[in-house]
């Protein structure tokens, strides 16, 4: 699956969508840190105090995941407060995506809060790759090795992290059938998320790329 672009054939996608838990990202080459593809270059900058005040009043949605699916974030911290802000909103964006799958709701308002228009279009396709087939997710998905890099006067960023799908599963809502990744599939997936800060100081996803086996 590809959260930013469906780069595999339709036949392959149909065969694997029920199994692969990849939070959908194209498997292409990594973007240069100096050229963040898909980011809007029109965003302006603001003072740290103004940004902090705007972010505090942004009205972030409450996102709840059931006990049947655990997202765990290991060492999801940064010494730089600006980088930490990217990590915080990136975490909630990912939680919102899986909450939308579990709620069978591709039009999740919480996900829309943490996505730009382009990012939301991608993520709806990712979510529908589950919901259109009557699937949800269960188990545990550790998210680790997070790193945020800021650009353009701290209005744009790249968020990189890894996931381990070893204990994550899909479950058919009607039949209850549970499936894991096919044998031999590398359970670790590396992600690069292009993010942009909006006028309220919220970091939103513009696009996501993934590479299975890309984690050391």
From TrEMBL:
It comes from Streptomyces mutabilis. Residues 1-17 form the signal peptide. Residues 26-61, 165-187 are annotated as: Disordered. Residues 39-59 have a biased composition (Low complexity). The keyword Aminoacyl-tRNA synthetase does not apply. This is Lipoprotein. Keywords: Signal. Coiled coil: none annotated. The keyword Ligase does not apply.
């Amino acid at each position: 699956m590809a959260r930013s672009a469906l780069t595999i054939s339709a036949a392959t996608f149909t065969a694997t969508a029920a199994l692969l838990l990849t939070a959908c990202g194209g498997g292409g080459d990594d973007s240069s840190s100096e050229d963040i593809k898909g980011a809007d270059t029109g965003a302006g900058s603001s003072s740290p105090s103004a940004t902090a005040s705007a972010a505090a009043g942004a009205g972030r949605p409450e996102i709840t995941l059931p006990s049947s699916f655990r997202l765990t974030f290991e060492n999801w911290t940064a010494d730089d407060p600006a980088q930490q802000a990217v990590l915080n909103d990136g975490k909630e964006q990912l939680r919102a995506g899986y909450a939308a799958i579990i709620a069978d709701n591709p039009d999740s308002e919480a996900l829309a809060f943490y996505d730009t228009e382009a990012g939301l279009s991608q993520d709806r396709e990712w979510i529908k790759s589950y919901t259109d087939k009557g699937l949800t997710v269960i188990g545990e998905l550790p998210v680790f090795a997070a790193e945020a890099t800021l650009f353009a006067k701290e209005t744009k960023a790249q968020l990189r992290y890894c996931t381990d799908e070893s204990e994550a599963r899909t479950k058919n809502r009607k039949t209850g059938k549970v499936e894991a990744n096919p044998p031999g599939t590398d359970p670790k997936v590396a992600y690069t998320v292009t993010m942009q800060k909006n006028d309220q100081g919220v970091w939103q996803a513009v696009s996501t790329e993934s590479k299975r086996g890309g984690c050391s």
